[in-house]
Write a structure and sequence with these properties.
Layout lengths: L2 H14 L8 H7 L4 H12 L3 H19 L4 H7 L5 H12 L3 H5 L25 E6 L2 E11 L4 H15 L2 H8 L7 E6 L9 E9 L9 E5 L2 E9 L4 H14 L12 E5 L10 E7 L2
Antiparallel strand pairs: 1-6, 2-4, 2-5, 3-4, 3-7, 6-8, 7-8
Length: about 290
């Protein structure tokens, strides 16, 4: 089963179990035989949505359809679709649809409908992707890290804040000065340790390739030897990086005989103005 088929199978599993209020991302990820982090990451890259947001939107779409087409009581629909109180249901319903459940029942206004997802891939992109495949021995990174919960989308929300912090406190400039290894630039590194997989946790590092003693106040991590596919990214941040990730998963992996190896993935940022139209960066993915 390919990774594309795995993601679609996971979506089918979600749809079958939408009314199961104990449905968890960990359960869904097991369908794809991948960690919570890698499933959540792939899902969000392809759909521009977290798994939790998709489930919530689909439930509220079905709830709205029932309100309009049946006589089911609002309080019963609240519990049916996973809300502990009618008030919580009404708040979530209004946030998505812009109207209350009562107004929806009276057909006062329109509802915001989210349809079931079907993953579609492109085996040939309109624009070429520049990449190379290398094998590289283990190397050391030094930097700072924070741990995030992937199950609730915390990583997506808080990693940009982390970057703001390291720019504000001077850490980013310090990492630029410490860069003395073969990987040139400041790195954003996603790492999921074995003991984190069942908990849906990940470590995110802002670091640099530094050979030698670990500088005071920083942490060190050894990136294992790997076969890497390295993609060029051209354009301003964050748009160019986000678009390249999407092309990698929707175009490159489906048309090549490789899969992500599941170890540390790198975003490599050059020491230049990230808002420039020709800003250069890279994505490094370990493959098997």
């Amino acid at each position: 089963m390919s990774w594309v088929e795995s993601i679609q199978k996971a979506i089918d599993y979600i749809e079958t179990n939408l009314l199961n209020t104990s449905l968890s991302i960990e359960q869904i990820a097991k369908v794809t035989n991948s960690s919570v982090f890698h499933f959540q990451r792939t899902f969000s890259i392809l759909t521009d949505s977290t798994v939790g947001d998709y489930i919530r939107r689909r439930r509220l779409t079905l709830a709205a359809e029932e309100l309009i087409n049946t006589e089911e009581k609002i309080i019963d629909l609240s519990y049916k679709y996973g809300y502990e109180t009618p008030e919580a249901f009404t708040k979530a319903f209004r946030k998505q649809h812009g109207i209350t459940p009562t107004d929806a029942r009276k057909k006062k206004g329109s509802i915001q409908s989210y349809n079931r997802l079907i993953i579609q891939i492109s085996l040939k992109g309109a624009e070429p992707m520049n990449y190379k495949i290398i094998e590289k021995d283990a190397f050391q990174i030094v930097g700072v890290k924070r741990t995030y919960n992937c199950q609730n989308g915390e990583n997506t929300q808080k990693i940009p804040v982390f970057w703001d912090d390291v720019h504000a406190d001077g850490t980013n400039n310090r990492l630029i000065e410490l860069n003395n290894g073969a990987v040139n630039g400041v790195l954003g590194v996603c790492i999921v340790e074995e003991e984190q997989k069942s908990l849906g946790l990940m470590d995110y590092w802002i670091a640099t390739n530094h050979e030698g003693d670990v500088p005071e106040g920083l942490l060190a991590y050894e990136i294992p030897p790997s076969k890497w596919v390295i993609f060029e990214v051209h354009g301003p941040m964050p748009h160019a990086m986000q678009e390249t990730w999407k092309k990698i998963y929707s175009e490159w992996f489906p048309s090549n005989p490789y899969q992500p190896a599941g170890s540390a993935e790198l975003e490599v940022y050059s020491n230049d103005d990230p808002s420039k139209t020709d800003y250069y960066s890279e994505i490094w993915i370990p493959i098997k």
